[in-house]
């Protein structure tokens, strides 16, 4: 969630009524610019609150309220919900200010300290007896494969317009279906989905894992616990200091693994989920550019392709790597050229 301020907004009648009902009828509102979603936030600076609205996603709105309360109940920090109107998808939530991990890192804050805190918060969530005791959708087989289809529908044809997409998609998804089989039955953890530096905050007035503020978890599902660890340590938007990913992975393993066998299983799932995630994101970034006109996401595409290449190797997914090499030759090296080719036509002047 970005923190820069745009022009003062005007609310529609349901928003005005909602604020009045919660004693904020005279509040000054400052709009925060959006991200890849249709969700909108308005800051109430005098009240220390944010007005959140998402009229396009009632299920996501309800999920946000439910998950926020669940996380707080587990001893973690999600924005406290002061009031909600499910009919109009409006909520007043706690405003933590601007101290996102991304901003703290840009200001020189210790990378190891911030990432260590985030890993500890994840471990706390995954070790909590009731951590997954919440009614959220399950990360099922078809969802995993549908996410990978975006690679076939957007990235692959953008890189190779003459590609015979149907047989490529069939083979690509069949290989992934086989590779992901060990993941399909795993629903042991609440997966927050977007667990990275733009959605984490350092809360100076709190201690322990509550010092790590959690944002944007409305898409949470029940799935494998390593997914959010990959989101954090193999971030599409930034490179970590040399050795930090490995040390943070071992920090997590030390907290969760009961022995060597489980430690090795965590590593295997970590690399497998990383490969799946990077393939999906490569397609999503191209789609955001071509369909939605959000070309800046392509700035991160070369990194995502490097991460995908490395994860395929680490996970031992040679059959998938071989298919990419045969059907999309030099796909990694051409990623940067693809970004340069697509972006200019979509960047605003």
UniProtKB/TrEMBL annotation:
Is Transferase one of the keywords UniProt gives this record?
yes
Boundaries of every Aminoglycoside phosphotransferase domain copy: 28-253
Q: Which GO terms describe its molecular function?
A: transferase activity
Q: Pfam family of this protein, just one?
A: APH
- InterPro entries in alphabetical order: Aminoglycoside_PTrfase, Kinase-like_dom_sf
Enumerate the UniProt keywords alphabetically: Transferase
Q: Which Gene3D superfamilies match?
A: 3.90.1200.10, Phosphorylase Kinase, domain 1
Please, which domain of life does this record's source organism belong to? Bacteria
What is the protein's given name?
Aminoglycoside phosphotransferase
